Amino acid sequence: MKIEQCTALVTGAASGLGEATTRALVTSGARVAMLDMDGERGDRISTELGDNVIFCRADISSESDLDQAIAAIKAAFGTLHIVVNCAGLGGSVKIVGRDGIMPMEMFTSRVNVNLIGTFTVIRAAAPLMMENSPNEEGERGVIINTASIAAFDGQVGQSAYASTKGGIVSMTLPLTREFAPNGIRVMAILPGIADTPLLAKNSPEVLDRLAKQVPFPPRLAKPSEFAALACHIVENPYLNGESIRLDGGLRMGFGRK
Predict the structure, then answer these.
(1) Domains of the chain, first to last
(2) Fewer CB within 10 Å of terminal CB in the chain, N or C?
(3) What is the pTM (predicted TM-score) of this model?
(4) Which amino acids are annotated catalytic?
(5) Number of continuous H segments (helices) and E segments (strands) in the chain
(6) pLDDT digits (tens, 9 = 90+) for 42-98
């Protein structure tokens, strides 16, 4: 599917992977609806990028917020071809740690945003995508979800985060099969350690140690590299039902201390 003149929805679009993907799609000629909770930054970026971009402040785990966002997209652009789910919560907390037992909110909030939020976006967007006329390949749309290598290489303290990302990987094939008759492809990208605000909460020493674990290139991933892969997935019609690691060859071990 050619990106030019398509309409895309990007969640988590006001920073990190989502912002980079928004900018790449606009550069390639797409109209983009940005979804994020950061209204100030979302408004600023959408204004900067021009008339082909709208911003919707939305909690992706809220059905009503997503229904309103889809209505705004239909009113502004008439249709929707591409969904890139980048919104998510990170964090690492042991079930029993120095501060006591992990609050259940630490687990449920990750499930609500990372997993349920991803599903809620797909649920809201799919009916509008199905209304599209198929292109010469029979395509009507593309859905790209963001998982993580933590789905397979989860570290101590990542039981909440890793389980949500594993859920995204696990639903990729069932969604692919469900939407195949509608000409909608479904893919997942599994970033490794990327230079995003989510990871920037760690100290420079921790970031340097993480970067040195990557076989090649020995650095953090650039958000632009995620965006480039997302754009390639959109434009390559034979990529479907797969989860692609974007990690420089990193395979994280146990690392007993």
Answers:
(1) 7-191+222-241 (3.40.50.720)
(2) C
(3) 0.96
(4) 161
(5) 9, 9
(6) 999 999 999 999 999 999 999 999 999 999 999 999 999 999 999 999 988 999 999
